[in-house]
Specification:
Strand content: 15-25%
Helix content: 40-55%
Shape: globular
Number of helices: 5
Order of helices and strands: HEEEHEHEHEEH
CATH topology of the largest domain: Glutaredoxin
CATH class of the largest domain: Alpha Beta
Largest sheet: 7 strands, mixed
CATH superfamily of the largest domain: Glutaredoxin
CATH architecture of the largest domain: 3-Layer(aba) Sandwich
Structural class: alpha/beta
């Protein structure tokens, strides 16, 4: 009887120890998830409104290379996005009617740049989006070097740059209100 009692006690201790380790792993994973989500949602940028935009050259999917400083004299919407990002794609679906069409005959440039993705992947996604009426040129930043100059993790991310090369508006994430604010700011900057 004593022998079985001690064996049950050992099994009970092992079971409690295993459950405790599982509980600790679960708590650790939850904390990691919480801090990841918390930091992802933070609006961290390397620039602030009224800072000068940092120059770069970006390869576009149509083969063209664009240097940001050569766009001075125009209002530039610098948009960082990714093909896997649902919010980015929702924003892209709104761009034709809210951003592209209203400002197509003005001194405005939409400069979307995919971060961390290959030319082929971005070309494939833009070919798919073209079927939905989303037909504009985009750049690629496969090593994220341009993105890292401007921001911390999190897309979509927009920097609205005025005709003098000054960042005048920053938005992170996508919703209708942010898009409306962006459009209003483009209009304001075009009229300055």
């Amino acid at each position: 009887m004593t022998q079985y009692g001690s064996l049950n006690g050992v099994m009970e201790v092992k079971s409690q120890s295993k459950n405790g380790a599982t509980l600790m792993k679960s708590i650790f994973c939850l904390l990691l998830l919480f801090f990841t989500l918390f930091s992802y949602g933070q609006e961290k940028t390397s620039f602030n409104v009224n800072d000068s935009a940092k120059d770069f050259v970006v390869q576009m999917i149509n083969g063209e290379k664009i240097k940001l400083s050569e766009l001075k004299g125009q209002v530039v919407l610098l948009n960082f996005w990714a093909t896997w990002c649902g919010s980015c794609l929702a924003e892209f679906h709104a761009f034709p009617s809210k951003i592209v069409e209203p400002y197509k005959n003005s001194a405005f440039v939409l400069l979307p740049i995919s971060t961390g993705e290959t030319m082929e992947k971005v070309k494939d996604k833009m070919a798919q989006l073209k079927k939905d009426g989303i037909d504009f040129n985009v750049g690629i930043d496969p090593d994220r070097s341009i993105f890292k100059q401007y921001a911390k993790p999190g897309v979509p991310r927009n920097f609205l740059i005025d005709k003098k090369g000054i960042i005048r508006y920053i938005s992170i994430g996508y919703n209708e209100e942010k898009l409306n604010n962006l459009s209003s700011m483009i209009n304001k900057l075009l009229n300055e």
